[in-house]
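Whether sequence alone determines local backbone shape is best considered at the level of individual chains. When preparing material for the folding task, we compiled for one chain both its residues and its backbone structure tokens. No coordinates are needed to read the tokens, only the vocabulary itself. For completeness, the protein is quoted in full, as a sequence line and a line of structure tokens:
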Amino acid sequence: MRYHPLLVALHWVSAVLVIATLFVGFGLLATTPNEAAGKIAILRWHMAGGMLILALTIIRLVVRWRSSKPAAAPTGNMLLDRLATPAHYGLYLLIVLMVATGYATGILAGLPAIVFANSGDPLPPSFAAYPTFTAHLLLALLLTTLIALHIAAALYHHLVLKDGLFRRMNFGRRS
């Protein structure tokens, strides 16, 4: 059995957006000084991406709760099997917390007016002064780690167990 087609589409779109937003955060925002001319444009993309990811995550949770889903895919290891469900919900939780801490940092730093309303005000000298930013960074590291483990687990199912797990999160007949 496969997951609902909407859930499949949301999974893959969300995966691309989350990875792209993490890349923008770690690769572009972290390396661009706040006084740089292009920083606001990068922040605009990052913040809008975070809001879109939150909306997609909420829709994913609703669809996941309301649609039938395949049975759990056992690994043959009781510990790994028990960790699968908390790890999946952990991804959802980390995404919501990432958006919450990013939103809180934005509010504290006055970013809505600077980034979206083009107020002309400068960005703060550093976001590190905000505890919510520190939490955002730590959550990003944790989310990146959990995503890497998620990908490793999927590859383990595909390459080692050869149990057809990828078919479940792909398009096609559900039965």
In short: The chain has a mean pLDDT of 94. The CA atoms of residues 100 and 161 lie 37 Å apart. The helical segments are 5-29, 39-66, 78-108, 111-116, 131-161, 165-168.
